[in-house]
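Q: Convert this sequence to structure tokens.
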Amino acid sequence: MEGKTVSLYSQPGKHAYSPLLIISELLPNVRTATDRDAGLDGLTLPEWYKAQGQYDEETNVLVRAYQQAYHRFTPSFEFVPYELAEREPLFVPWETLYEEIPGRIEVELAVIRHTRNGSTENEEGR
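A:
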């Protein structure tokens, strides 16, 4: 494979990739999912994931509000090349990732809570 390049396009606002840009553009909500509908589903976890029971509708409301306030955008479909470097391993065993996910979620939720609390305090202080 030396000298060969694989190009993948990331679906705006998602963790999905495709070698064909047209695939993303054919999705029915590709433009609204990152803007008007950003955070619509709250915190999404697959049903089989053990940590799912730790989160409730309050978590979903928090995530929705944060996504709407800080991370909504209209996709341009202008992609910038990014070359993966071999600095650190890209893949870990499934068991390792499965165990890391709850901690990663908690770190992100702490950032969201801090950001939302800070913005609420700032807005009330005006």
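The radius of gyration is 18 Å.
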